[in-house]
């Protein structure tokens, strides 16, 4: 069976990510990517948003049997993704990127989120002056989740309003995540002839 690279799952925050947002730009780079579309992007309902991630994965799996995913979330979408990972130990998501998470305490949700290392490798990208989450809080959540942490400096909420259309860092992360997945799968898929050159 031929190796298939993980597909990209885009998880927007409140009010979705518009046409000029970096998440939309990133989604356009990968033809087989999928966006989680909430029934109401104006209502931050954590259980419903997390379950919508699961429903999106299930729907995509029916269209194209099985396969693994990497997920890129923004703002409240980060909280929904963390909750999804806590609720679904069997998720096909293998690596995640959290960008500018929203502060759980703003929504009274801190206790509804995992406070332990996530089961999949993760990275968290924050800002020094994000109005939705302080850099100190972002570092605390990254530590709880076992995520690598990057602070981009004074760049706001890392969204359209703070000047982020194309976001090459996110694309580099996706490419690195796909390369990592390929390396992890290669021994299982390498042909006998290839093994002669692997020693």
UniProtKB/TrEMBL annotation:
Q: Does the record bear Hydrolase in its keywords?
A: yes
State a single Gene Ontology molecular function: hydrolase activity
Superkingdom, taxonomy of origin:
Bacteria
Recite the UniProt keywords alphabetically.
Answer: Hydrolase
Question: Which InterPro entries does the record cross-reference, listed alphabetically?
Answer: AB_hydrolase_fold, RBBP9/YdeN
The name of this protein is Alpha/beta hydrolase
Source species: Roseateles flavus
